[in-house]
Amino acid sequence: MKKIIIAGITGSMGKQTEKLVSSLKDCELVGAFAPHLDDNLDLPAGTKLFSDLKDCDIEADIWIDFTVPSAVFENTKFAIEHKMRPIIGTSGLDDSQISELQNLAAINGIGGIIAPNFGLSAVLLMKFVKEAAKYFPDAEVIEMHHADKLDAPSGTAIKTAQIIAESRNPEDITEKTLEQNPARGADYEGIKIHSVRLPGYVAHEQVLFGGPGEALTIRQDSFDRSSFMQGVKVAIEQVMNLTKLIVGLEKIL
Amino acid sequence: MKKIIIAGITGSMGKQTEKLVSSLKDCELVGAFAPHLDDNLDLPAGTKLFSDLKDCDIEADIWIDFTVPSAVFENTKFAIEHKMRPIIGTSGLDDSQISELQNLAAINGIGGIIAPNFGLSAVLLMKFVKEAAKYFPDAEVIEMHHADKLDAPSGTAIKTAQIIAESRNPEDITEKTLEQNPARGADYEGIKIHSVRLPGYVAHEQVLFGGPGEALTIRQDSFDRSSFMQGVKVAIEQVMNLTKLIVGLEKIL
Amino acid sequence: MKKIIIAGITGSMGKQTEKLVSSLKDCELVGAFAPHLDDNLDLPAGTKLFSDLKDCDIEADIWIDFTVPSAVFENTKFAIEHKMRPIIGTSGLDDSQISELQNLAAINGIGGIIAPNFGLSAVLLMKFVKEAAKYFPDAEVIEMHHADKLDAPSGTAIKTAQIIAESRNPEDITEKTLEQNPARGADYEGIKIHSVRLPGYVAHEQVLFGGPGEALTIRQDSFDRSSFMQGVKVAIEQVMNLTKLIVGLEKIL
Amino acid sequence: MKKIIIAGITGSMGKQTEKLVSSLKDCELVGAFAPHLDDNLDLPAGTKLFSDLKDCDIEADIWIDFTVPSAVFENTKFAIEHKMRPIIGTSGLDDSQISELQNLAAINGIGGIIAPNFGLSAVLLMKFVKEAAKYFPDAEVIEMHHADKLDAPSGTAIKTAQIIAESRNPEDITEKTLEQNPARGADYEGIKIHSVRLPGYVAHEQVLFGGPGEALTIRQDSFDRSSFMQGVKVAIEQVMNLTKLIVGLEKIL
Fold first, then answer.
1. Chain B closest CA to C173's CA: distance in Å?
2. Which domains does chain A carry?
3. Highest taxon of the source (chains A, B, C, D) (predicted)?
4. Do D217 and A213 touch (CB under 8 A)?
5. In this predicted structure, what is the pLDDT of residue A39?
6. How far apart are the two ends of chain C, measured CA to CA in Å?
7. B65/C7 Cα distance (integer angstroms)
């Protein structure tokens, strides 16, 4: 049995993770952490709740974190130092913090995973795009989100463009004589990104590849955040075998 | 029997039109015009060829024009003055020329059609978009063309955006607080247009509409110019009933 | 001010309709009907609640019905006899009941609308499909729904196929020598329908049209039933101008 | 310099391969084989033409075969016995012939490739589908072809379904209570395949994956057979490093 602590148990992702853990036969929820405990929490008997890291004296194999950017570094450090393998879904760790945590994990001899995105369709899209760009260097990204999304392009679209740029051979790109033009979208290292913002839409991304006489399109649609639980499940299955603290769910797919 | 003259018989569109006319039971090719006659032309017996308007003494019901911008105005004038109903696929007529030709048609009591685009899928898309924009004021246009297309956005995409802008009620548009941003594409009267340029692609356009909890998408794909013949066929069927010189195939669909 | 009664106020659609009516400046909710009244209802002051048609002595212009199949006929009859224009979203009326109600509406000199589907994207899709089938007689329907949907094809897909069959000219269909084959889907009057059932999907339909060298695709996605409110809004705007009891939102789009 | 013989030089694929080889800096066409030589062939100076295997005394590194099913086995045998690495695009080899050729290649110590499909987009689609099915066991295949295609489903769609069936864990599939139904398409080991046949379409395949709250779609479009040349190019680049006679371009992508 894998013993698990969930940090951020009162949030939406924490609650969904709790249901997931309950449904897994080889897992047991042993602890739950939230700074402000909520009386309505309906946790399995025997789960210890705590609202301060200092109060945590529970032995566990895995620490799953869906808390807030301001807490995630201290939480992850605490988990590693107490030999709990971290599965981190909270955003906010910067590059130097990640390096420090990776060193700490190496010293303590445990693996773990920091995943900015637990949506399997998005992570698989990026994995496939990396491969496809080797053979189809000409590619463009279209991301579509609800009208309330304030930033453009989406972080995922930028990351996708970076993956294409790193994977393709610049010599193979078809030259275009078209002048720069607002209709051609944002340019990330030569990859065009187009952002659509419309009511009704949720979160969608497609990558279009074109070559002589053919086209390849990879598309993912996220309808709601329940989709993240499939990714968390994969992480729980794999984390005991990891020997390093890795970044990105794609590393274990 | 509708008697037909094809102007521009030696071009690709002229040749396809000749095949179309031959296949229609109620049509007869009586004349063919080209400044430089091509000996390899294999026209039905009895078709008179001529290489100068002055040499044309043929009576016909319909004049179909796939020539060049520099010739189209004189050709169309000639057709109308000789009581032939024009079906004009040649580009290059400006607004004042079109007005003059419309007056001339009215004086001569005949109808006709000037069509910048004979592709039925593109014309129907624009017709449907006009209707949809009344109920879905939030819309974006994505057009996708081969990597050699030099201009962006495409003329069809701009026309599509104009149709949306004219048809929708500005008060119904969902407000977006997003700053202007290259990823958001070109802006035509508040409609965003995104242009994709990739090898393998031919000529494609899609319009995305979004509303609360739903989306509507209309897409057209043009794989080759043979598609224009369906539109020419519709024009031949309808032109005898027209009482004006109209612009746009959508007027008779 | 249009005075409105909502029948089925305690259901999900009834509640959403109540919010819609509250947001419309020229509408006033004057009555609400539900067989089992719910104390938690938070209706505008002055709205009369009743749980039996006999208790309804309210004067209103419009009766909006989202109740149950067993009640809808009696409700609609009641509304018409009391000079309230019916907007009926409840399913379950059969052809003879509809005829009877249409006669009753004619006698009472009022119009109204029975709409099996208030989703604007689905209704517009059907309207456009009717038009497109005249020019693109070759068409296939693909509908995609969540894995729990028990019937296939969907009712909307069957209706779409019927519209295509009625609208296209059978002589124009491209002959196919392919033998009947399970991969080719269900056949409704010569139109192929394909039904996809997958988790994650909600309710989506696309119609593919193909012609020489080109293709036209119309697609609609319903993500949640909030989308129906746009259609109800259109019905409220138009119902006072109707002189008959019509069936289908497409009649007033 | 890689010395290359092209068998089937007079066919469409042979001619395209000749152009490809001419454009590659590290390749030299040394021989061309066709049973009926065509005087119009415009081959590089120094290319030896032959119309019978007996007349072939040319030394080459690679034998590229786009001939006919009745000739491909003897051709490939000949190539291997003469230490030429085969790249076989001709269909028609059965399983026992492939085994025999693989043994022969092992004895002669050379590698090669037999590829039923050189279209990179189709081959990559199958590669990605194999990976995706591990995480998205619920999948359906939709293939779309021109109206003249006589068989359904396409061979590629059947192969795609087999890949999904082999890759996914049957225990993870979402149970559907829906009865078998023509609209649900053909069933290959539990995977539904839908075949669309419409004029205008060329050759297209999409695989739809669905999971809780999300969807992943992979689509490929083949517009013309020029697309195969990208796959042949990859095969030429890799074949000198192969130590076995492999089947399927996906093995070297």
1. 14
2. 2-110 (3.40.50.720), 120-223 (3.30.360.10)
3. Bacteria
4. no
5. 67
6. 23
7. 61
